[in-house]
């Protein structure tokens, strides 16, 4: 199972980076989202995968005896998913505004702020 | 009482943000509450610094969950100093915003966002938990994203896109690093990590160190991860630029210093040598970038990068003197850099441009402003007796002590080039005759100009004080450095005496 998830993490990272290196800003945002997912699955995998072993103390016992699934990585992922959701929602709106303001979704054409500043010409 | 002091720097901005949100349609009330909130934040931070200075490191376990299981807030001297600086810049920029931020931005929630940003920064300085640090980073980032894009001007959109992308990449790496850290140590409490990390394989620890170096390096804008900064920081209004320039990259530097003095100190000859090399490149590329620019705030942006190099050079040298120098440098730099951005905004208010070509003659018409520019500018370049001189002197002295002459030579050369850039701005904006087509606005209302100029005067006075009465500030830095270099006190305060 770990190996499978490791491959999934790798594929997610690769796909995310590939999308980010495309010129379209929509793909840029999708790539960012995939990077976040990759990090989440990585945390899940590296926090040890224990199948069917809930962290419950049996009746009568004072503490856990057998091995158990650590709930903390899942709590971390849950927090990270919520944060990621908010950030990505913002990023989508930003992309829409960028497209409306600049009239292009091509990253290669989005360099006015640098070029005009350098040449000292006013912004169009 | 002392544990309550620890949460005030987070609660006050949160409360201010909520109140200003509720007063959405009452702009004048928002303005008053915003300044009052920022002032109270400064007071709380200052109170905390006093307590930490007297009674040593303070820690509070949130919800009474004992460390390392719950989330801990810790304030050592370094955190407290950073909080006070946040308070000072927060108040200065809050006042400046009253003049600088237009009604449209105000009516779209500038003040609530501003205080959420302050809360995120304060939280990042106070937390003693790696994942909690990630959360505070995100709070800070989301507020800064909106502040960056608020207004929707064309250059702002471009700047925001680059800023958001690079910071999200950094967050993804940070999150992955936190996950791996938990996987190999089973804890995320920083004090607990400091005791656990020496037990894991050195190769694994170094890998983790590098992941954190990249994640925080992007936030701190070190070489070669700095390029988002000069692409973004010159686009929003001057007040936003100033708080970003003063505080945001410094949160990255803070995180670097925290992580590389508390956690990853097993293999200093390896990790800190890498940081030293990065410091050299950061200083040089930053200052060379600035030399080729002809836009007021672009020049200043590149200088942020160059100055970050000095701070992490102090971290890399890793001696008591060097770290004291780094802390002192941060104190000096935050005030000076924010102030320079405020001056650039005032210049823009008068002559309507940030382009050096389209500015001029301000020495003749506004002598006071010219002097107020010279104080932080010469301090940035490191001219005695201003604050930058002592900061650079300390770090360079630390470098000479360890016979690291190459980095010392680079630091001195960069200092010269900094002076060149500052003189360039001086010549173009203040000294040369006003270009014919430039008209200067004289019909700014008295109050509006007061909001512009009073924060600049106060920050310039701070710079003069740190420069002329350097001894108490330097002692404070030395004490902070001593705490950083001797983490046992930090660990004991957090985990209790039982360890």
What would your notes on this structure say?
The complex is a heterodimer of chains A (124) and B (499). Chain A is mostly helical and 124 residues long. Chain A contains 4 helices and no strands. Chain A has a single domain (2-50, 69-119), classed as Helix Hairpins (Orthogonal Bundle), CATH 1.10.287. In chain A, helix 1 runs antiparallel to helix 2 and helix 2 (25-46) runs antiparallel to helix 3. The longest helix of chain A has 31 residues, at 72-102. Chain B is mostly helical and 499 residues long. Chain B has a domain at 281-485. Chain B has helices at 2-22, 27-55, 77-100, 103-107, 110-126, 130-149, 154-185, 190-196, 202-220, 228-232, 238-263, 268-291, 296-317, 320-351, 362-365, 367-381, 387-401, 405-431, 446-468, 470-485, 488-495, and strands at residues 58-61, 72-75. In chain B, strands 1-2 form a two-stranded antiparallel sheet. The two termini of chain B are 25 Å apart. The mean pLDDT of chain B is 91. The A-B interface holds A 20, 25, 28, 32, 35-36, 38-40, 42-43, 46-48, 72-73, 76, 79-80, 83, 86-87, 90-91, 94-95, 97-98, 101-102, 110-114, 116-118, 120, 123-124 and B 131, 134-135, 138, 141-142, 145-146, 149, 152-155, 157-161, 164-165, 168-169, 171-173, 175-176, 178-180, 182-184, 231, 234-235, 293-295, 298, 355, 357-358.
Short summary:
The complex is a heterodimer of chains A (124) and B (499). Chain A has helices at 2-20, 25-46, 72-102, 112-119. By secondary structure, chain A is mainly alpha-helical.
Largest sheet geometry of chain B: 2 strands, antiparallel
Alpha-carbon Rg of chain A, integer: 22 Å
Structural class of chain B: mainly alpha
Helix content of chain B: over 70%
How big is the Rg of chain B? 22 Å
Please state roughly what percent of the residues of chain B sit in beta strands, choosing from under 5%, 5-15%, 15-25%, 25-35%, 35-45% or over 45%: under 5%
**Major sheet of chain A:** none
Query: What sequence of helices (H) and strands (E) makes up the elements of chain A?
Result: HHHH
- Overall 3D shape of chain B: globular
Segments of chain B where pLDDT lies below 50 for 5+ residues?
none
Order of helices and strands of chain B: HHEEHHHHHHHHHHHHHHHHHHH
Q: Let me know the average pLDDT of chain A.
A: 85
- Give the overall shape of chain A, derived from the CA principal axes: elongated
